[in-house]
């Protein structure tokens, strides 16, 4: 059964929710699924704005066919070549072989890499950054956004209706469930924002400077609505998501808050961390979050690193190195360019503690890391209580200042 929904008089949502995919990019858990958004412009000419993942192609084709209402499909605008959006390109192209594809040169190069057939010159319109194109009543301006988060990514701005089509930017994990507009979802709720941040941090997080450049470019446009390729269409209070993106892409914390990451083999490090958290709580630190890195999947831990100002690592020494899950977290943080955080380390080692030194080696390769104190060493379950309390004092004063 087809499913589509009007956005404006001549713009239709033809995307598909995917509740079956367990791991986005075969990596990130999806608790609420994901939507592959696609939009159909019904102007004097018709234009499909991106396609969908190949796994939902059947539903997607049905949506497009019904939304077209018997009209031909004249254009396909490709904003992003990643297969969650271009996976059904061939299905669309085979069904509408006369359509013209509008995109930039990099996209056409990637099309040839992903698909084995040649696209004739007459079916290609190669656009440049800032170039405009009219579909009739609607004029679009193409704004390149390289490395947000692939090199060919471009946005387009519908000058006529002040709508920004933003590729992956401003996307969120989670299905739309019929509520395709942000105004129909509780987008300020913690769960939603956590999923928005987790999406940004893990998918785009590495490319903060490029995201800042794209924000500056789109800042010159008067925008009434943002249509991303995942999650809801932003149709109200746009500053909410724009400000979040500005903070995240500058690697500035959202919350002055403490997140504690620990690993514990037999529970001794965990016991010290629980004690330490109570010391922080006693000193007035609120909303502390503690994560056992063995239990919580790393994309959630990364999301939290993009949120909080103060990060504490409680790390055991393991095989004379870091515990693998802890090492994975730190490596991922470094790869995703986490910056500007205040960090404290509590290491544990029964005979030759190494984890503080190894953690610092990774953290020292990241920008803007501030240490409030020297690492604290636990030997098995033995710790200097005064030093632990002094560390709690320092963190509490800094967070509460
Ligand atoms: Fe939603 Fe970069 O693909």
Automatic annotation (TrEMBL):
<dbReference type="Pfam" id="PF19583">
    <property type="entry name" value="ODP"/>
</dbReference>
<feature type="domain" description="Flavodoxin-like">
    <location>
        <begin position="258"/>
        <end position="400"/>
    </location>
</feature>
<dbReference type="InterPro" id="IPR016440">
    <property type="entry name" value="Rubredoxin-O_OxRdtase"/>
</dbReference>
<dbReference type="GO" id="GO:0016651">
    <property type="term" value="F:oxidoreductase activity, acting on NAD(P)H"/>
</dbReference>
<keyword id="KW-0813">Transport</keyword>
<keyword id="KW-0249">Electron transport</keyword>
<dbReference type="InterPro" id="IPR036866">
    <property type="entry name" value="RibonucZ/Hydroxyglut_hydro"/>
</dbReference>
<dbReference type="InterPro" id="IPR008254">
    <property type="entry name" value="Flavodoxin/NO_synth"/>
</dbReference>
<dbReference type="GO" id="GO:0009055">
    <property type="term" value="F:electron transfer activity"/>
</dbReference>
<dbReference type="InterPro" id="IPR001279">
    <property type="entry name" value="Metallo-B-lactamas"/>
</dbReference>
<dbReference type="GO" id="GO:0010181">
    <property type="term" value="F:FMN binding"/>
</dbReference>
<dbReference type="InterPro" id="IPR029039">
    <property type="entry name" value="Flavoprotein-like_sf"/>
</dbReference>
<dbReference type="GO" id="GO:0046872">
    <property type="term" value="F:metal ion binding"/>
</dbReference>
<dbReference type="InterPro" id="IPR051285">
    <property type="entry name" value="NADH_oxidoreductase_modular"/>
</dbReference>
<protein>
    <recommendedName>
        <fullName>Flavodoxin-like domain-containing protein</fullName>
    </recommendedName>
</protein>
<comment type="similarity">
    <text>In the N-terminal section; belongs to the zinc metallo-hydrolase group 3 family.</text>
</comment>
<dbReference type="InterPro" id="IPR045761">
    <property type="entry name" value="ODP_dom"/>
</dbReference>
């Amino acid at each position: 059964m087809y499913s589509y929904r009007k956005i404006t008089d001549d713009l239709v949502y033809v995307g598909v929710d995917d509740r079956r995919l367990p791991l986005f990019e075969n990596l990130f858990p999806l608790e609420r699924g994901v939507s592959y958004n696609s939009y159909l412009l019904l102007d004097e000419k018709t234009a499909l704005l991106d396609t969908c993942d190949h796994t939902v192609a059947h539903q997607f084709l049905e949506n497009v066919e019904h939304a077209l209402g018997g009209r031909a499909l004249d254009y396909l605008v490709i904003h992003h070549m990643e297969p969650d959006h271009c996976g059904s390109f061939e299905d669309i192209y085979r069904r509408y072989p006369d359509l013209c594809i509008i995109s930039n040169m990099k996209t056409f190069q990637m099309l040839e890499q992903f698909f084995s057939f040649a696209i004739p010159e007459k079916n290609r319109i190669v656009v440049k950054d800032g170039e405009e194109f009219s579909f009739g009543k609607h004029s679009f301006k193409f704004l390149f956004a390289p490395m947000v988060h692939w090199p060919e990514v471009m946005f387009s701005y519908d000058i006529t209706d002040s709508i920004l089509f933003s590729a992956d930017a401003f996307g969120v994990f989670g299905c739309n469930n019929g509520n395709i507009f942000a105004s129909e979802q509780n987008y300020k709720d913690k769960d939603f924002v956590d999923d928005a941040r987790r999406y940004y941090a893990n998918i785009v997080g590495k490319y903060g400077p490029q995201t800042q450049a794209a924000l500056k470019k789109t800042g010159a446009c008067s925008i009434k609505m943002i249509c991303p390729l995942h999650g809801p269409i932003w149709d109200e209070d746009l500053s909410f998501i724009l400000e979040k993106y500005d903070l995240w892409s500058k690697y500035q914390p959202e919350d002055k808050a403490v997140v504690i990451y620990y690993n514990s083999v037999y529970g001794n490090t965990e016991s010290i961390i629980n004690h330490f958290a109570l010391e922080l709580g006693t000193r007035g630190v609120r909303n502390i979050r503690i994560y056992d890195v063995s239990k919580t999947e790393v994309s959630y831990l990364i999301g939290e690193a993009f949120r909080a100002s103060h990060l504490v690592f409680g790390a055991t020494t393991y095989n004379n190195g870091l515990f693998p899950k802890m090492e994975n977290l730190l490596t991922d943080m470094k790869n995703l360019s986490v910056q500007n955080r205040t960090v404290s380390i509590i290491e544990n080692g029964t005979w030759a503690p190494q984890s503080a030194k190894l953690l610092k080696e990774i953290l020292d390769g990241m920008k803007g890391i501030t240490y409030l104190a020297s690492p604290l060493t636990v030997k098995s379950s033995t710790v200097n209580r005064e030093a632990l309390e002094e560390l709690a004092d320092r963190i509490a004063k800094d967070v509460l200042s």
